[in-house]
Each structure stands twice: as structure tokens, then as C-alpha cells.
Amino acid sequence: MSEVTADIVGTIGAKFTLTVSSGTVTTAFLKVTGAPDVQLTVGGAGREITVPNLPAGDSKVRLDIVWAPGDTDAVIDVGSVTSGTVTAADPKGTLDAGKTPGFMELFGK
Amino acid sequence: MTMKMHQVFFLVISIAAVPTNVFGQTELSLAKNPEAFCKDDPHPEARAYCKSLAALLTAVTAEKSAPSPVLTVDNPHFRTPLLRLDLTDEEATVDFITATSGTLALKTAIADALRSADQARPDQQLGTDSQASGTTSLVSKAGSAELLSLALDTGTLTKSVNGTTTTLSSNADQIFRLITGSDPDCIINCNRRTWFEDRVLNPTNFLASFDLAQQSSKTTPTSGQASGTTPVPVGSAAIPTGAGRLSSFTTRYQLMNKFDPRSDKFKAAWQKQVTSLGANVKTIGDDTDAVFGILAAHKPISDPDKDALVRSAEAKMVQSAAEDPGGKKLIGSFEEFWSEVTSEALQDPKLASAVSKVMQDRGIYRTAWFNAVDAAVGNLLTFEYSYNRPVNQPETDDVKFIYAYNFGASGMLTFNGMVSIYGGTLPAGASYGRLHDGQISGQYDRTLSGKANSIQTQLSLAGYWQYQPNPSVLNIPAGTVAPGTSIPLPNGTQEFVGTAGSLWVTQAKITIKGSGGINIPISVSWSNKKDLLQGSKVGAQVGISYNFSSLGSLFGAKQ
Known about the structure:
Chain A is mostly beta strands and 109 residues long.
């Protein structure tokens, strides 16, 4: 995992929201190797997850998702950026409809 | 040549059940079905990761036709599928669990968990209906067995003949998935679900009831009087051909209220259900983390140099996809990577119980998810057709509509409306018409013990009204002699018995539901008469049923 493979790349310490285009995220956790998981705030009817402080290097967000009938694969994107600079990969990452948990790869530089 | 109604019905079902390729449909090409090369692969890991393998193959194939193709792992279009195929990454754990559940998961534990969840449903019809000579169900429920159920009921509600009936019921889609090797317990967006499965097989259920107290018989010509001094001309006699006889066959189709998942109304209803499912998906997530924790403790995932292995494997998969558009080389490269990454971890005894736990979580979530969809969609409407063979009475074709309204914790209301007509050709000179009777009934069910208990009790209160324009028709069996004489009645004689008009029945029932799939219904009933007898009657009924729901994994079904 690296900057090349990450779904989201941003500056260290950036505060921003991640968005998913489909499914309903009920809980989300920021996972950094060697550190305890941090529960993230979920809003926007389960489509917006707030990352308060982007860690340096590789990290992951685990998304516990409830999929509705007819839901399609979700596209991962960046919502609002409160501080720092954050961009989504091109092409944007996706989450498979029906699968839970889903994961997003983050990279802070 | 005329066909009876049930024969026409079976013909329609048979035609509908014929696989589409029988009609000349050719095998789908990879372009139309990108997962065709891996979805039926004998390796469970290839099937579990099929979507990602197909995504990589599609992306590589598309890249090859670019003016300056970049066939390396750094191509951003290969990024997402390669991430999901990186077996050393946590993101791949979801499919790892699916791939290994067939060999690692404790299948009986999974089945037990699913069955326990299924037992909480108040809407399942596992036994036969009120028309049988052995039944505990005055009102038919809208739902059916998930996979297979076997019920034994004794005691009568509307019939004069008091018997014992065993009923086998099944869901067409679950049986289809079992036969075709698909997992009947897959969750949400199951692979290979088709329009035919969703709209025809899944809502269709079958029930066959056998009257154990009755012998099946066959009329055969006699060859002469064996004893007696007075000649008695008996041309034919009924001989027993077996103990127990098919008393009814029922097909039911669940007509769920039509809904559009994109409609605002459904979205609003679904959002109310999401909260209740949140705990389920968090448990799945936590237990998936636990599986990855075990994997991460083993080489090569624990190895600091694992990135070199991953990069090499990814490069090989991209190269294989480029060399073989059919995908077989890609599967081969993935299999090599799979062996390298999982061979040590699969020896860890802790892994099996961790994978089993996730599979249990998924099974429970699956049940909860379908219940949530039902709740969001609204009320259930089921259409039912039954072909009945009552003892010594003409065959009937019964058409029933079942409507259920679920109040959730406050219980469930079920209403039935039915018309019963005499089947076949009416005898010459029949003093009765085609209509046998019409019925309306209702039932209220409520769990008394709470759905969390391992042993649950359910209270049911039911009322039933049936109207017959004519008294019941009794077939006089061949060989019967006129009372007080030795004169045999001609074969095919029918007599009216009982009275026309209203038949009322009320019933109170307690059903004890064990977590292992056992249900024991015990009921008392009162009726103002029976179909052949006059005068009110108080009766008792008892039954036992076993719900084999979700035992499909025991038959080795694929994930």
C-alpha cells in the first residue's frame, strides 16, 4: 500500500469528509498499524464520514455498511475539506455492493 | 382431451423451470459476462475473488487496445482490482472468509445460528391447512420454510375425519440453489441470482401433505365369489395399495407488494430499518478484523518484506491477464499467490473458529436483512393453489389469498380468503354445482417470550367462517352394501351428508419454538359443526415440525 494505491491522498493532519455514493455506513473506524482503532463520525444519512486528522503514511478506514436492495457499487470520493489538501484517486476507488465491511485506503504526506 | 386445473398448473411450472439454455441460448461470452471464466471454477478462492479477477481481466483487456498500453501494476486502472486481490491486505479478508468457509467454518454451528434466527419469524406456514384431517392451522400464514420443513399434525378443525397428516414443505429457489451447487445461505447480493430466481423461484413454495391414517387403495375387478351360499354379484373391490396417501398438494407464490428501491417512500422506510441492522454489520466488521488479526500473525503477512512478494504476484497476474484473455492463466497466477500467502495461516487452529464466527454473523445478518426488507416493503400477499383429495369425498381445487400485516413487536395479523371448487368432471345428474365452499378467516400471532429467548412461545388466536351452498358430498366406496341388506351399491354413488350453510371455527394455539428448529403447536378449537357431522364440537390439536432452514451448507453448497 502506498500513495500510488491509496483511494485518498492528503496532507498530514488534514480534516475532511469522505463520501460514498451508495449504501449506508452505520459505523466507521480509522485504522493505523500499531495504534488503536479510532471510531469516526458518520453523517449525511450514512454517506459521509469525517476524518479529523489524517495520519502520516498508510492508514485505512473500515466501513460497516448496510446495503439496500438495488444498491450499486459505491464510489469513494472526498466531500468537504476543512483543513489541509485532500484528493481522491483517479479513477476513484469503489466498494462492492453487498460486501461489509468495506475498506478505504488513505495516505498522508 | 381435457386437463384438470392442477395438471395445467404443473405444466406451466414445468415449462417455466426449464433452464433457458435448453431453448438454444448459447454460452455467454466474457464480454457479456466478465465473471464467466471464474464463477464456476473448482477452486473456492477463485470463485470468492471472481469479481476482482474479472475486473482485472477486463481492465487489462481494455488497456491492450489502447494506443500505448501500460501493462504494469502502476496503471491506475488496475489499482482497485489489484488491491482486492492483495491477499496480504485486510481488504481481501472479506473474500478470504468466503473462500475458506467451506473447509474451515463449523457448518453445523452456522446452520444452528441461522435456524435460531429463523425461529423468531411469526409468519411461516410449516404444516398443512384447515382442510386436512390432521392439522393445527386454522389460518394459513403468508411465509414458508426457508429450505425444507417436515411437520406432523394430528387433530381436525373443519373435517369430520380425525387423522394424522405429515407435511413436507420447501422453497423452490433454495432447492434450486442446493441442486445447482450455489449457497442457499449467501447474503444480500448473491452471485448468479437471475430474474428467474428472484421473480419465479424465490417466491414459490411447495407443500405436500400425506394422510397417515388412511390407506391408499385401488379399485380392481373381482374374479368370483369365494364363500357364502347366496350369490352376491360383486364386480369390483377396493384393495389397499399402501399405508398413507397424498391428501393435498399446495403451491404458493408470495406476491410482495411491488416496490421501487429508488422511490422516496421505500428509501424512507428503509432508513428506519438500517438502524436495527447497524449492530449486525458492526459485529461482522469486528469479527472480520479478528480473522485478519490471525492471518497477520503468520508469514508472509507478518514479514516486513511482504511488499516485494505482493508486487511480484501482482505483476504476474497482470501479465497472465494480458497473455490469456480467457482468464485461465490469471486464475493460475492467483492460485500461486493464494498458496504462498495462506499455506501457513491455514494451519492455525484459531482460524477455523474465527471464520466460523463471521459466517454465523453473516447468516444472522442475512435473516435480519430480509426481515428488514419485508418490513420496509410493507405487507405480504400470498397466492396459494391447493389440490385436495379428502377421504371419500370428491377432489377439490382451492384458491386462497393470504394477507399478512406485521406490527413488529406487537404481533402479526393474517387474513385468508378462499374459494374451493370441485375438480374434474361433475357426475351426470349431480345435484350440486361446481362451487364447494367459500371461506374467510383471520389470525393474530404474538410472541409471548420475546425473540431473544432460545425457547420461544407464540400465542395465536384465530377465527374461521366457511359457507357451503350445498351439504358435503360423500363418495360411497366401491363394494359398500346398502344398510341392512347384502345388496352392493353401484360404484360412483354419491350422497349428501351434513348441512349447507355456515361453518364456524375458533382456535387458540400456543406454539413452542425451540432454537434447534423444532416447533410444537398445541391448540384447542370450537366449531358449530363439521363438514359431514352436525352439532358443535370442542377439539384439540397437536403437532410437531422440524424446520431444516439453512442446512444447505451441510450438503456442500458453494459460497
